[in-house]
Prior knowledge:
The chain has about 170 residues and is α+β, with helices and mostly antiparallel strands. It is built from five helices and six strands, in the order ββββαααααββ. Strand 5 and strand 6 form a beta hairpin. Helix 1 packs parallel to helix 5 and helix 3 runs parallel beside helix 5. The protein is globular and about 50 Å long. The N and C termini lie far apart (about 55 Å).
Amino acid sequence: xxxxxxxxxxxxxxxxxxxxxxxxxxxxxxxxxxxxxxxxxxxxxxxxxxxxxxxxxxxxxxxxxxxxxxxxxxxxxxxxxxxxxxxxxxxxxxxxxxxxxxxxxxxxxxxxxxxxxxxxxxxxxxxxxxxxxxxxxxxxxxxxxxxxxxxxxxxxxxxxxxxxxxxxxxxxxx
Length: 174
């Protein structure tokens, strides 16, 4: 903890977020945030008795290679799987976010992580790179919470099925 912070202690990138919902769950409360902008810290100016930060928007580059669409679909699936197991009420918020970049921002705003990890995410300029980072964060959270695979259909169980010489794969058994 920094007792007397100076400008050198500030990160140069941040997030402007809106609180979109408060979701009570068990003995905790989830605050659902939606990242709306990634500002870059440009400096500070003195205005009388107080200081004013100068910030500018970080320009996000669109992806022309089609990766963003596929990555957004993967991120949405993975995030919904996590939500079903950890905060079912938040699943609908995931469906409401149509824009791929906004989806990645919402995941990063709401998942645990270090400030350094969040700053590195915020500094990214490409949507596909942001989606990859958000997907990694969702997968890490799923591992941390024990949410590794979707629930099995009613009455189904996992068993090993032989595929070929010396290999096997998990399969649903009736």
